[in-house]
Write a structure and sequence with these properties.
By secondary structure, this protein is of the alpha+beta class. The protein has a single domain, classed as 2-Layer Sandwich (HIT family, subunit A), CATH 3.30.428. About 30% of the residues lie in helices and about 20% in strands. It has 3 helices and 5 strands. It has a 5-stranded antiparallel sheet, sandwiched between helices. A hairpin with a 7-residue loop joins strand 2 and strand 3. It starts with a helix and ends in a 9-residue tail after the last strand. Bound molecules: guanosine-5'-monophosphate and zinc ion. Zinc ion (ZN) binds next to helix 1. The site of zinc ion has 6 residues, from helix 1.
Amino acid sequence: MPDCIFCSIVSGDIPANIVLRTPEVVAFTDLNPQAPTHILVIPTEHHENGAELAKDNPVQAAAVLAATHTVAAEAGLTDYRTVFNTGAEAGQSVFHAHAHVLGGRNLGWPPG
Ligand code: 5GP
Ligand code: ZN
């Protein structure tokens, strides 16, 4: 997808601190971390959000979910939060599906 920053990270056109790459997913540290560990896990295909991803490519959706746990474990986390923001009102600012993996501090609930 032209002009999609996360597609550009998948293709390597934009650099990122990549912690995991498979044919299905790429995971990299968030540019503006909200916790000591803040990793984004994205499907290699462009889908607008997690719901579209689950509908159109359930194999990649499952791979994204599994990878959130892989990267959390590799970061040494046993307690962490996995978040999909869906829609601008929920805080989505990049419209390529992604899961946030947040940990390393006490995470409040409910989220803001
Ligand atoms: P959203 O607000 O859409 O749920 O999350 C988008 C996330 O992408 C934000 O946490 C933001 O900091 C991160 N982000 C935006 N642009 C870049 C980038 O170019 N590189 C990296 N590593 N993270 C980015
Ligand atoms: Zn994209």
